[in-house]
Amino acid sequence: MAIINRDHAKLICDIGELSAIITDASDLGAMLQKIVDTVAGHMQADVCSVYLFDDAGQELVLRATHGLLPSSVGYVRLRPGEGLTGLAFSERRPVREADAPAHPNYRYFPGIGVEGYRSFLALPILRGRRPVGAMTLQSKQPDHFSAEDVQVFRAITMQLATTIEMARLLLTLERKPATATQTSALPEPRLVRGQIGAEGYAVGEAVLIRQPSLAEIRALLGSAPLDLPDFRRAVRATEKQIENLEKLAGERLSDVTAVIFSAQLLMLRDQSWLGAMEEQIAAGTAPAEAAYRVILNYVELFDRMDNAYMREKRYDVLDVGRRLLANLTGHRDVDSRREGRIAIAAELLPSDVLKLGLEKAGGIVLLSGGVTSHVAVLARSLDLPLLFVDEPHLLQIPEGTRLVLDAHQGNLVVAPSEDVERRYREQDEARRSAPHLAERMRESTHTADGTRVHLLANINLLADVEVARSYKAEGIGLYRTEFPFMIRNDLPSEEEQLRIYRRLVEGMPGREITFRTLDAGGDKVLSYFDYGTEANPFLGLRSIRFALRHRDIFLQQVRAILRAAHDTQVRIMFPMISSPDELASAANAVAECRADLRHEGLLACEHVQLGMMLEVPSVLETMDELAERAEFFSIGTNDFVQYMLAVDRTNVHVADLYIPQHPAVLRGLRRAVTAALRHGRDVSVCGDMAHDPRFVRFLLGIGVRKFSMSARYLPRVQEAIFATHLDEARHFAQRLLAESTVSGATEVLDEG
Ligand code: PEP
Ligand code: MG
After folding, report:
1. How far apart are CA 498 and CA 562, in angstroms?
2. Closest ligand 1 atom to the C-alpha of 482?
3. Given this model, what pLDDT does residue 182 score?
């Protein structure tokens, strides 16, 4: 600890003087600046900053700083609990760190000059029990602030609380209320925090994604004199564009081969639609007007349909209609609107994400959904950076606003200054030039004391197989077979599935492959399937329940898997099993398929292992019975946490309650693993907890020796395992399991 003789008494006195000048301070910024300059000087700190809580935005805003870049004032914003400053604020306690960047809660904001600071001290500014802001000190020296400094700093913040609260209120009054006209003005630079759905980085202009409206279509009509040949040329151009998209999808994603575009092509070529337009043109209507009227007609037609799936078709009509009119009237190419841009949307379907990927969007900002939602899972497969942000007003920003999407750190910078943009770019370049992570992977994984651990990959699309191989995955621990089902307009036939599955089997020769049967429902809706209205889809006709209710679909899939693996071994597992009866029904379906295939003389897999996912808490009570039938278990922690805690994994409003380290979750996991091992059953973890190094130690400690995750996480998990002694992991697990509160478990987890 550095021993520094600071004249604390003088400082407290000076601050008292500062408080007194509030009354005649004409400029609040200048007053706050004087406060931070004075405190930094007295505390011999390199940085002193003051953050005030903004009630409207529910965030801490940096209002003055000595030491950080002046441009970061008003720009750095933190939610309560976020970063070390947010922690001091929300927990109303001092946070003192000898080496802050090493702390898991530490938030790094590039471009504001925080680099190089080690010691950190934050204190909440309290009005009574209510926190109204926070003050921080930073120093380049490690371990610079003493316990005595904390006391002095506390005295300072107490003295300043009234002054600061006044400043805070005045600043709030200064804020101009948002009005409709403001939306077209240039947005203020700001930093928005989000949850990372798919890691990556993008910088570009904002493009707002909504389904096109009729009004937008109308706006494309134009007034140029056009004739029938112009119209036909536009139809051909439209056809070509859609075919190109289809081809692109086919090249990149053979398992979902572009079927989403085939419906649009069918519609475009349909004579009743084209014919109706041509008829009107022949009768003297301007081509654009004729096209618009027919589009309108079709939209109304689909709107009147009873079937929800058919009603959805209105969007295809609008999409094709918009494209056709844009080609007819010479508007810029509709696809180029998204290339390199960052899409902002209230919600997206998986097929929308696929389209954005094909249109080469730079990244996505989504205002709904959670990091374990399947839109996120798909974005990872498509290498599209995705951030979930709970800020509806982002939909109001003008199109074309510059954005920096840093989905490595979880930051979205709206209207960044050139300097900030440059710093983010530099940081990204540094990241890219780091040696490729996959090259660091070793063929097999051991703990520091030599216990063998198996690392496998989760895949969603065939494109992921190549990635899994390049990261030296030992096999596929989870193939989410529903993805090819989700990104289509119709059910894939048994033969189509066979082709896809065969390519997977051939792509991973001699390695363990676990097919999970169709896990549709919840947020993985099949758009062509009418589920009716479900108030609680995650508690509804989801997953194995859907499969058993629609047995024909289920049998077709199992047949395709068995046929694809006719010359090898395969593992089939059933998702969301909640009772031994359900497991028995699913296993019977496999037996039936094998018997049928034999009867039909078709080659089928002789060596199938049947297992189940452990996702629903009810199975904890029946593990012994389940282990009699299931040859292996795989724990889907994404759903296990969701169901254990009754927190919708896709709902941003309860994202803070989705707590994997909840004692009930940890104890449940331990119970499940212990029971599986007692019966000699293989048990793996394939949910997101498997790729969080902090939980990897815990899971090793309770006996897990097999982990499956998105391949990109494998290197860091392997590194964590190599660094872990089993004894230490067991001890860590014991400490975590001994905690009975969320806060206690969080503390142990954070301490590491
Ligand atoms: C899980 O629930 O943890 C899991 C791996 O399955 P999914 O995320 O596909 O629901
Ligand atoms: Mg699941």
Report:
1. 9
2. 9
3. 35
Domain residue extents for the chain: 8-174, 190-210+335-426, 214-329, 448-751
Q: Could you tell me the pLDDT band of residue 8, with boundaries at 50, 70 and 90?
A: low
Q: What is the mean pLDDT of residues 626-640?
A: 97
In short, whether 480's Cβ falls inside 6 Å of ligand 1 is yes
Is the shortest distance between the CB of 687 and ligand 1 below 6 Å? yes
Q: What superfamily in CATH does domain 190-210+335-426 come from?
A: Phosphohistidine domain (3.50.30.10)
pLDDT digits (tens, 9 = 90+) for 118-152: 999 999 988 766 788 999 999 999 899 988 888 88
In this prediction, residue 18 has a pLDDT band, given cuts at 50, 70 and 90, of low
For residues 545 and 527, give the distance between their C-alpha atoms in angstroms, rounded to a whole number: 18
Q: Helix axis angle, 147-174 relative to 8-20, nearest 10°?
A: 10
The CATH number corresponding to 214-329 among 1.10.274.10, 2.40.50.180, 2.60.120.200, 3.40.50.720 equals 1.10.274.10
Is 639 near ligand 1, meaning CB less than 6 Å away? yes
Does ligand 1 have an atom closer than 6 angstroms to the CB of 637?
Answer: yes
Mapped onto helix, strand or coil, the DSSP state of residue 359 is coil
- Tell me how far the alpha carbon of residue 90 lies from the centroid of ligand 2, in angstroms: 32
Counting from 1 in the atom list of ligand 1, the atom nearest the Cα of 638 is: 3
* H-state helical runs in 462-550: 463-470, 482-486, 494-507, 543-549
- For residue 458, which atom of ligand 1 is closest to its CA? 5
721-750: pLDDT as tens digits:
999 999 999 999 999 999 999 999 999 998
* Partners of residue 208 on adjacent β-strands: 344
Which of the residues 66, 374, 662, 691 is marked catalytic?
A: 374
Q: Which one of 42, 593, 686, 691 is the catalytic residue?
A: 686
- Residue 435: per-residue pLDDT: 61
Q: Is 519 in the pocket of ligand 1 (CB under 6 A)?
A: yes
Among 373, 483, 613, residue to substitute to test ligand 1 (most atoms within 8 Å of Cβ)? 613
The SS3 of residue 195 is: strand
Backbone phi and psi for residue 495, each to the nearest 5 degrees, phi listed first = -65, -40
| Residue 374 annotated among the catalytic residues of the structure | yes
Exposed, middle or buried, 644 (CB in 10 Å: 0-12/13-18/19+)? buried
CB atoms within 10 A of CB 516: 26
Q: Which residues pair with 177 in a beta bridge?
A: none
Q: Which residues contact 223 (CB under 8 A, 6 or more apart)?
A: none
Q: Which helix (H) or strand (E) holds 683?
A: strand 682-685
Nearest to 70 by CA among 35, 33, 124: 33
Q: Which ligand is nearest to the CA of 481?
A: 1
The CA distance from 112 to 105, in Å, is 18
Instruction: Give pLDDT tens digits for 382-441.
Output: 889 999 998 888 888 888 999 999 898 788 888 887 777 777 777 777 667 656 778 889
- SS3 of residue 153 by DSSP: helix
Smallest-distance ligand from the CA of 524: 1
- The answer to whether 245 and 452 have CB atoms below 8 angstroms apart is no
Query: Structure tokens of 88?
Result: 């001091």
Instruction: Identify the CATH assignment for 448-751 out of 2.60.40.10, 3.40.50.300, 3.60.110.10, 3.20.20.60.
Output: 3.20.20.60
**Whether CATH 3.30.450.40 fits 8-174:** yes
pLDDT of residue 183: 36
Residue nearest atom 9 of ligand 1, based on CA coordinates? 480
Contacts of 340 (CB under 8 A, 6+ apart): 204, 205, 360, 361, 362
Q: Compute the distance from residue 576 Cα to the ligand 2 centre, in Å.
A: 7
Based on the residue annotation, tell me whether 48 is a catalytic residue of this protein.
no
Positive/negative CA dihedral, 244, 250, 253, 258: positive
211 C-alpha to ligand 1 centroid (Å): 29
Which residues, other chains included, contact 275 with Cβ-Cβ below 8 Å and sequence gap of 6+? none
